[in-house]
Amino acid sequence: MDKLPKIALPVIFAFIVLVILISKSAVTIGSGEAGVLYKTFGGGVVTEEPPLGEGFHIVAPWNKVFVYEVRQQEVYETMKVLSSNGLDIQLEASTWFQPKYDELGKLHKEKSEMYKERILLPAIRSAARSVVGRYTPEQLYSSKRDAIQAEIYEETKKIVDGQYIQLNEILVRDVTLPTSIKEAIERKLKQEQESLEYEFRLVTAEKEAEKVRIEAQGKADANRILSASLNDKILQDKGIDATLELSKSPNAKVVVVGSGESGLPIILGNN
């Protein structure tokens, strides 16, 4: 019985040390995350092996694990840029991105956990300045929004593709012009719209007038052809045909007694 405390103390001490070692060695990677292993005595950041996936892991207590979010993320940026004629433009854009999973170790070793601030955001700003500088305020305000968005995405992608970052999309949410420029553009657009409406009315009226002229010309041509084809013989034949049809009517008694000066029959006795 006297020896029990002497045995228990080392056991208890060993148990405590084991618990400390396990707590120091246990790493849990959450959902949508991955871990980069740093080996203190084994060459530093592990880049040639896949990162640690979701779940529970045991690592040597003298090593470290750096946890990264690897699902799609969004960063919102407001930038001051210049148009092609040197006017200040405020551009608001959202960027969807995520680190490249298989190259997470290289990202950590070369760019660190600050890769968004050191790589992604500077790339977006540079691309936005380059793209917006090609356009006038009128183009930025109206027709070129989609083109600007696509060009900023392409230029940013060229920069970050070699930096272990996967760029999914860039969305231009708003383009803000100086108030005086915006009002001038709106007046110009309104005048252009009114001019287009006026031209449309003129074209419509001209088409309607042309239609009336064509119809009138058609009628005139028909009458001219008809008049040219009529002669006394044709008129006389038509008159005879009409008289014969009239004589067949049960409500009329027709007597033909020779012909008139025009050569047409004379009708007498109509009851």
Structural commentary:
This protein starts with a helix and ends with a strand. Helix 3 (115-132) crosses helix 5 (145-160). A hairpin with a 5-residue loop joins strand 6 and strand 7. By secondary structure, the chain is an alpha+beta fold. The mean pLDDT is 79. It folds into three domains: 4-69, no CATH class; 73-177, 2-Layer Sandwich (Tetrahydropterin Synthase, Chain A), CATH 3.30.479; 238-268, no CATH class. A three-stranded antiparallel beta sheet has the order 3-2-5. A three-stranded antiparallel beta sheet has the order 6-7-8. The protein is built from seven helices and ten strands. The protein has helices at residues 4-25, 104-110, 115-132, 137-141, 145-160, 179-229, 232-247, and strands spanning 26-29, 33-39, 44-45, 55-58, 64-69, 73-82, 88-99, 165-176, 255-259, 265-268. The longest helix has 51 residues, at 179-229.
Highlighted features:
271 residues; 10 strands; 3 domains; alpha+beta; transmembrane; 50% helix; Tetrahydropterin Synthase, Chain A; elongated; single chain; 3-stranded antiparallel beta sheet; Band_7
Summarize the structure.
The protein has 271 residues and is an alpha+beta fold. It is built from 7 helices and 10 strands.
The structure class reads: alpha+beta
Q: Which outline best applies?
A: elongated
In spatial order, strands of the major sheet run 3-2-5
List segments where confidence is low: pLDDT < 50 over at least 5 consecutive residues.
none
Succession of helices and strands = HEEEEEEEHHHHEHHEE
Mean pLDDT over all positions? 79
Q: Give the CATH class of the largest domain.
A: Alpha Beta
- Put simply, the count of helices is 7
Structural domain count: 3
CATH topology of the largest domain: Tetrahydropterin Synthase, Chain A
Distance between the termini: 158 Å
Q: In percent, how much strand structure appears in the residues?
A: 15-25%
Helix content: 40-55%
Number of strands: 10
Examine the secondary-structure arrangement and name the CATH architecture of the largest domain. Answer: 2-Layer Sandwich
Radius of gyration: 47 Å
